Amino acid sequence: MQFSPVRKCVPLARTLVSKTLASWGYGQECIDRVVLVCGELSANAVEHGGRRGHLFEVRLTVDGPHCLVEVSDAGRTPPRPHPGRGGRRRRPGPASRRSAL
Questions:
Q1: Cβ atoms of residues 42 and 60 within 8 Å
Q2: What global pTM score does this model have?
């Protein structure tokens, strides 16, 4: 799923992820967890990696009880660990998170 890098597309990404997972037969509690992750990663893609004329992309990969949420943006700089945050990425895109469904 591809979206314009504007804030109003973050709720759209969450809605489409929710509808997709529901159509795949997942329960609301599981959907809510994945939608939360998707919303955070999408907001980061818009805030930190959004460039005019470039889209950000949300991909879902389901493997049994796990769902991989990947969000990529148009940022040119790869994320790098931030020493003050326990090795967390400094710039969010491309980013992915695995969530148990």
A1: no
A2: 0.71
Tokens matching residue 59? 């991909």
Which of these, 57, 49, 52, lies nearest to 89 by C-alpha position?
49
Which residues, in sequence order, are bridge partners of residue 70? 59, 96
Q: 3: which strand partners?
A: 56
Residue identified by tokens 């037969």 is 25
Vertex 30: Cα angle to 100 and 42 (nearest 5):
80
| CA distances, 80 to each of 40, 43, 65 (Å) | 18, 18, 29
Q: Which regions of the chain are under pLDDT 50? A: 90-93
Helix (H, G, I), strand (E, B) or coil at 56: strand
